[in-house]
UniProtKB/TrEMBL annotation:
Its EC number is 7.6.2.1. The active site is at residue 426. Residues 450-477 form a coiled coil. It is found in: Membrane. Belongs to the cation transport ATPase (P-type) (TC 3.A.3) family. Type IV subfamily. GO terms for biological process: phospholipid translocation. It catalyses: ATP + H2O + phospholipidSide 1 = ADP + phosphate + phospholipidSide 2. This is Phospholipid-transporting ATPase. The chain crosses the membrane at residues 86-102, 108-127, 305-334, 354-378, 950-968, 980-999, 1029-1053, 1065-1085, 1097-1116, 1136-1155. Mg(2+) binds at residues 426, 428, 889, 893. Its main location: membrane. ATP binds at residues 426-428, 576, 623, 646, 680, 761-763, 863, 869, 892-893. Its cofactor is Mg(2+).
Amino acid sequence: MARRRIRSRIRKSHFYTFKCLRPKTLDDQGPHVINGPGYTRIVHCNQPHMHLATKLLRYRSNYVSTTRYNLLTFLPKCLYEQFHRVANFYFLVAAILSVFPLSPFNKWSMIAPLVFVVGLSMGKEALEDWRRFMQDVEVNSRKASVHRGSGEFGRRAWKKIRVGDVVRVEKDQFFPADLLLLSSSYDDGICYVETMNLDGETNLKVKRCLDATLGFERDESFQDFSGTIKCEDPNPNLYTFVGNLECDGQVYPLDPNMILLRDSKLRNTTYIYGVVVFTGHDTKVMQNSTKSPSKRSKIEKRMDYIIYTLFALLLFVSFISSLGFALMTKLLMADWWYLRPDKPESLTNPTNPLYAWVVHLFTALLLYGYLIPISLYVSIELVKVLQATFINQDLKMYDSDSGTPANARTSNLNEELGQVDTILSDKTGTLTCNQMDFLKCSIAGTSYGVRASEVELAAAKQMAMDLEEQGEEAKNTPMSKGRTQRYSKLASKTLSDDFELETVITASDDNDRKQSIGVKGFSFEDHRLMDENWLNEPNSDDILMFFRILAVCHTAIPEVDEDTGKCTYEAESPDEVAFLVAAKEFGFEFTKRTQSSVFITERFSPSGHPVDREYKILNLLDFTSKRKRMSAIIRDEEGQILLLCKGADSIIFERLSKKGKDYLGPTTKHLNEYGEAGLRTLALGYRKLDENEYSAWNNEFHKAKTSVGADRDEMLEKVSDMMEKELILVGATAVEDKLQKGVPQCIDNLAQAGLKIWVLTGDKMETAINIGYACSLLRQGMKQISISFTNVEESSQDSEVAAKENIVRQITNASQMIKIEKDPHAAFALIIDGKTLTYALKDDVKYQFLALAVDCASVICCRVSPKQKALVTRLAKEGTGKTTLAIGDGANDVGMIQEADIGVGISGVEGMQAVMASDFSIAQFRFLERLLVVHGHWCYKRIAQMICYFFYKNITFGLTLFYFEAFTGFSGQSIYNDSYLLLFNVVLTSLPVISLGVFEQDVPSDVCLQFPALYQQGPKNLFFDWYRIIGWMANGVYASIVIFTLNLGIFHVQSFRSDGQTADMNAMGTAMFTCIIWSVNVQIALTMSHFTWIQHVMIWGSIGAWYIFLALYGMLPPKLSGNIFHMLVETLAPAPIFWLTSLLVIAATTLPYLVHISYQRSVNPLDHHIIQEIKHFRIDLEDERMWKREKSKAREKTKIGFTARVDAKIRQLKGKLQRKHSVLSVMSGTSSNDTTSNSQQT
């Protein structure tokens, strides 16, 4: 049954002078000209079935997919991905060739491992894509209310919504597609939209429908509704829309303020009706996203080059072997009577050595194929899956509030986490909670609010710890105790003067802080203003005006909960809510709003009872990003007309009258202090108006507002400026944009780990700068380089060139300024907006811009579009050639998440688009530290060591085949049984290397966090550079030579049993293979730093498995076991020389590694070597001071973060101490001279 909707009586469009501007009549602005390419879309409103009749009108469905494969493409695309890997392609060719007689091995020894490896990798890809598919199903299955006909609405899944459907969206719901707003719960058809998911902005956007569709206020209104929309084709531009609506014989122009985009959310509005214009991948948010790319880590890319190197070695060895065979066939075959040279076969015909060379080349390529590790890829895949499982199950990255664990959505990039150089982060929802707390204020030149901000608190604690450490070191220096004590008080006094460490006492820890906060949005604490104590302050009249500005100057609406009776506020921005909550706590509660008045309950009065006051709203000049201020012209109960204004301090200060600057000096000082504390600030002022002045201005304002023409906006701005002058400064507010828990500490630790952090946000520049201060990406004393766009009054083409030249000039000047800076502690911050980035990202400018950004300690890009985020990320990735990580939480971050080498999505916030496009997801930004510094560091070293070891063991094994073949006249004969070849990579050496890749830890997780500089081993690539790779390869060559020569020397020229029996090829091959198994497994044991019972089982179990296999296989009938029948039990085990040879080979093959590691640890140890020795000898427990000193040394020199801020403060304090010390020295010297002269006179 159709339901009647009750509309709000407030016409909220009257609250907005600038945001709801539009033509009053159809004659004001004609319809848009819709024709030509790019403007072909036709939407039949409320008639979605009509789009099925014509092929041109069959638009995409609303189904959204982020998967890489589907049922049809999985097999071909995945097979292409697998055989795109050079090693897999080689083994495919080898498996095909093994079917022919020229193969030296059984065909199944080549086919079986290939099928196993490729099948396992494809299964992993299928599993990961299935997870993406299930997340897509969750989004596509969301329900929306859709018009079914006859004025009735019903629930329908998002994926079934079609172009032309009329949709009803309730408060706090997401828009399921791009909609044209038809009507809302407000009489004038406006609604509030939160676009944080699209552009990162926290302020709500005001949308307004056409007057022609205002009448569709109920479900049944749509029974006979129809219309046609002709508009632009799907495109990624979030802020533009061109189209016309044809309805009831009239044509109405449409603009972007009427379009509700998918994945934005309805706020502060009970309901809206809209018609679907774009669906699915045609929506603007999906147009801004890119296809999920197939990412590969830098280690995997370098691994390809190593395999190419091994291929070159394989070809070289095969060429030598074939050439040797051809020469022997040509020169010696005639003397080998047992090969019947009188009746030669084609392969051994001395007259045709070229044929022998070509055929033997294929045989050699198959024979020495074990130089290429076929199980490398599958082992790495398996290891990465297990590593990802450990990441998913890490309880220290589990968010108990939302119940969200970390999630490695792909395991291909685990080791890339350990090589990140630059982090590109979104702001809103990633760094901040979008929760504002009123914390401090400045009124009449006096600062109020004793509670410390999170930034002050953490910085003060860090400073206290650093000074304490320095004090402990000072005690152990030759400095006399008297001198130390002499200046300790001086230091304490200077410290308390410059940095309020007493704030730590106010909120000594998080528990105290939480207990003292009783009201959400209000963390203010100062008894001078609370409980009407402000009446006793010397400037109580100014304080009263300050409170009234907070309570009256806004566009919010109060809502009373019928169940609890509590009043909440619905406002465009969380800042306004914080101001209203603060006003309420101070005794000025905003209780009611009508079309023309606001009502305030003031608790203070001579009678002691609350008094309700009405303030008539004469005009509201609303806040815009261009104006950076908001004003309300009101009439109080005494009839006095006042203009109340709040805005950015730079804007308010330039509008002050000469008499209104009494508090300018102290207020500016307080604003600087608040900014340093990471707080968002606004200045408050007012102006008294007389009736004649207001009436004259209001007439001008009314004329401008009702004027017709393109210059109406400019006229309104000019008239508003006339009134917003001659203000009297009252004070300023300081609101804390609550950072997510642990964000400043996380950024500080990441900076100490040597990572660069760039912030890319769609928010305003002022907001981004405030958050920069809050996160310590910016600090007082840091030189800010602001690259800004300036309009040039020339023709469009000339202005483009001039603007570009101006930006290039600014970039060049900034780069020169950095180069000539001589202060080693100087830090620079680059701040740039999206309009300027348009030019800075041009092909001929972008590398200059990148060079400047790299030279700066921090980079903040504000007002950037999703596309620009992706372009900046691409520039950082390709321009520097280093690993980039992008982290965000909204759909506007999808582009940069996919563009970066690693994409991290924040889950548990609004929407899941960022998570669905990401490679890893975490619930809070602070977990990024553990993800990188612990898991990234471990995974990088594990994978690097694992790959190096793989090449070592395969070279060790593969070259013994070559040596034996050369020894036997390049006959193509393998010394090993086919079963040995099959087991070597798949069973006997695979488990130890997997245990290395999964469980190895150079240092424990807590030490990784205490010594963040250890992380730099990844970005510097210390464990996978060519020096280390070639070293391992050389070790493999050495081991293969030792194994072959020792076994040949021992078994070939003498009997190896007491009965005089000599070793045949199978006995020597088995003995040699045994030595290989022992050598490579002992080598991996020496490589490991961390052992659990699992490693012991896998290493020694693999060696034991070889003997068990040899014994059991030898027990099989000769028909099955062949020449291996009873090989261990009867042939080798009874011979002591077999066991002694194994011991000798183990000692000889591991000797170079032992010498190398001993020399390195003794002469040139790496950081983790030192930490391992400290932990092993428990020095960290016995000498805590030394442990602290080592930890302080483990900080990378950084110019951002708390540590940099504290270091700068300490340098400042030391300078003051030195100056005071010099003054004291002069004074003491003067005093001693006076005393001496007096004594002489006496």
